[in-house]
Amino acid sequence: MAENENELEEASGNGVDETEAGATDTVPPEHAELAALLEDARGKADAHWDQCMRLQAEIDNLHKRAERDLANAHKFALERFAVELLPVRDSMELGLAAFDTEGGDIGKLREGVELTLQMLTNAMAKFQIREVNPEHEPFNPEYHQAMSLQERADVEPNSVVTVVQKGYLLHDRLIRPAMVIVSKAPAET
Fold first, then answer.
1. If I label 125, which of 12, 20, 41, 95 is the partner at 20 to 30 A Cα–Cα?
2. Taking the model in full, what pTM does it have?
3. Within a 10 A sphere around the Cβ of 123, how many other Cβ atoms?
4. Range scoring the smallest mean pLDDT among 47-56, 104-113, 157-166
């Protein structure tokens, strides 16, 4: 018991002997109880520390996995779109091969090109790619790029009179503006 008492005094940093403080030679039962509570607390602290370290390792692993998944998502984001475009390419290759054969029917070749264009249009629509074809609409600098101005009396000024190249939207976000020729009022003579 005296050893426990000395250990408790050393642990508390007090260093004062009970006999010097006027205490009796008997050791109170709380000391044994306190030692048991201290050991229990240390065990719980060690268990919590271990749990904390495991959780930290798990968080690190989740973070690494999320970064890897994000990198793969960026790397393979166009996979579904590419799969939809492959039949279009195949169709175009077949069309070119048909040109090489002697006696190729122009009507059938035109029909093949139209079907290929329809396949491409369907693939683009499936992925929310829409065309911007603003002919005869007011000029909108958010979606159109003016190539030149043309004096025209038969249409409203600042209207699109010719679409040189169509523009495209991806999920309502502009990915290419329409290249257009815009009307302006004729100069007064």
1. 95
2. 0.60
3. 19
4. 104-113
Average pLDDT of the residues in 144-154:
93
* Residue pair 157/138 in contact by the 8 Å Cβ criterion: no
Token readout for 159 is 């209207």
DSSP bridge pairs for 151: 184
Q: What is the pLDDT of residue 103?
A: 65
- Distance, in Å, from the CA atom of 110 to the CA atom of 91, rounded to the nearest integer, reads 12
DSSP string, the chain: -HHHHHHHHHHHT----TTTTT--SSPPHHHHHHHHHHHHHHHHHHHHHHHHHHHHHHHHHHHHHHHHHHHHHHHTTTHHHHHHHHHHHHHHHHHHHHHHSTT--HHHHHHHHHHHHHHHHHHHHHTTEEEE--TTSB--TTTEEEEEEEE-SSS-TTBEEEEEE-EEEETTEEEEPEEEEEEEPPPP-
Count of CA atoms in the C-beta half-sphere (13 A) of 67:
6
Quick one: pLDDT at residue 26?
60
Phi then psi for 77, rounded to 5 degrees?
-60, -35
Write phi, then psi, for 150 (nearest 5 degrees): -135, 130
| Residue 96 pLDDT > 90 | no
Domains in the chain, please, with CATH? Answer: 129-189 (2.30.22.10)
